[in-house]
Amino acid sequence: MLEFPDFFDIPLAEVIDKGMDWLLANWGGFFDLVGEGILKLLLYIEKFFLWLPWPVVILLVGAAGWRLMGRWRYGILLAVLLLLIGGFGYWELAMMTLALVTGAVLLSLVIGIPAGIIMAKNDLVESIVKPILDAMQTMPSFVYLIPALMFFGLGKVPALFATIIYAVPPVIRLTNVGIREVSVSVVEAAKAFGSNPWQVLFYVELPLARPSIMVGINQTTMMALAMVVISSMIGARGLGLEVLLAINRIEVGRGFEAGLCIVILAIIIDRLTNAMASRQKE
Q1: How sure is the predictor about 7, in pLDDT bands with cuts at 50, 70 and 90?
Q2: N or C: which end of the chain has fewer CB within 10 A?
């Protein structure tokens, strides 16, 4: 077999490894500080979800389904689905998973919406960021565990970090698309009435782009939930860890129950966020 010539070798792995070593040597304290802040946020969210009584959560989800989806039977269906999680004995683990997803989505929105706004306002930034987003969405999700482990070690923080990298592209893309699709005549009319750029953004463009942004939030949430099992490999507790343990021990029933609970959470979150996006369009 004809071997590839050595002079074509590209030492990309060595360059990346040296860059990571430099970051850890010079910015290690900064990453420790960020990790402590993120951990505190996650613990507060987790404590809140675990503190909520399960009947209250089920009633709130049922009421939200009825209110947002317009029919009482949808609310009952969502409540029954959530009740199944408790019936399987995974309520606390489901709340831990929901806390991780909530933290990841909140931080993704803090990063993604401003990034989408900047992309919408600058064509050069859009041309630079779009290929990066393409790479983020096509890169195998397991790869995100490597820098997360190097910067933050094992536990909830690297799991959240990896989840954010995987889940943030949709909200960036759809915020950019939503603002760019706002009618030019509407923006010009706002400017003609004396609105400054900040007023145009907050009172015209963002409200009109809200349906697109809501779809981005929906997609980001679903992608964050999809990282649950993978995040369990680096120390994140919750339903993903149950699936991982079931795989290691070849416990089919346990894995099926935990996987079904993840599916139930995905259905509930998807239906509620889709209903919110539809209401915004109307």
Answers
A1: low
A2: N
